[in-house]
Each structure stands twice: as C-alpha cells, then as structure tokens.
Design a protein that fits this description.
155 residues; alpha+beta; 6 helices; 38% helix; globular
C-alpha cells in the first residue's frame, strides 16, 4: 500500500501538465465553466460502437481538456478572446488555421517540439459561448473538423 501511495504521489505532478497554463488559468477564472477532462483510455471507452474513424481520430491523443463558457453571462468581449489567444501564443502555440464550422468561428493553434506536434488548442466562439479544447498529443490534420463536431455535440 505504501508503494502504491508513493507511486501516486510521484505521478500526480505529471498528471497536472495535461493542459496549458492559459487553459488552466481560464478554468480558474471561470469556475462555473462546463469542463471535461479526458485521458486516452477514457476516450477509448467513449467509442462503444467501435467506430474506426473515431478510434483513428483519438489514437495519438494523450490528454484532452474541454471548457465551454457562457459569453453573455460572463460578459466576455472580443478583446478578452484576443488576449486569450495572445496568452496561448506566449506559450509557443502557433497559428495553424482559422475556419467557420457549424456556425462557430474556430481558431486552431499548434505547439511543436523539434517538428513533432505536442499539442493543439482550438478556440471556438459564437455569440453565446467561448469553448476551448486543449489537446496534448496529435490529431490527424484531415480529422480536425470531425473532432470539432464531436466536441460541439458534448453537453
């Protein structure tokens, strides 16, 4: 039992790096935000129909944090969203793409280490909400819209 407790205490700090500092700060600021956190094994459990496309989508994702914040209730203005994006860029996230998907403005940022993707951040906005999906790991670029659709359907 002592060995298990020691192992958990050693591993705990490693588990807290599952999201960027900016995402963590955003969650702390809006503690009423709807939030979900997934590890790879949790994502695999969500695939109860053995959907091969979904399995391919999540196979290289280590961890994922999703936040949805009510823009109107929290009076989030466009300037605050610009500041949020600047904070991600300060963490070495770079612009990957901007698109409109199912009525949302979606901005995707990528973080790399020696040419290897280590993380993606999706900042999704519409008139009612600000959503952030912070992904540690890799997502196939041709699957980005599919991932956004899956996340958007989460309630």
């Amino acid at each position: 039992m002592k060995k298990l407790l020691t192992l958990v205490l050693i591993a705990l700090p490693l588990l807290t790096v599952a999201q960027s500092k900016t995402t963590k700060s955003l969650q702390e600021k809006y503690d009423d935000a709807f939030g979900l956190f997934f590890y790879n094994n949790t994502l695999n459990m969500l695939n109860q129909t053995d959907d091969e496309d979904f399995a391919e989508l999540i196979k290289d994702i280590d961890k994922m944090k999703f936040l949805r914040i009510d823009r109107k209730a929290n009076k989030i203005e466009p300037s605050e969203i610009k500041e949020l994006i600047a904070d991600y860029k300060d963490e070495d996230f770079e612009d990957l793409m901007t698109m409109r998907h199912e009525g949302m403005n979606v901005q995707v940022y990528i973080q790399e280490d020696d040419g290897v993707t280590t993380g993606l951040v999706f900042v999704m906005t519409d008139d009612e909400s600000l959503s952030v999906l912070d992904v540690k790991g890799k997502v196939p670029m041709n699957q980005l819209a599919n991932l956004i659709s899956k996340v958007k359907s989460i309630d």
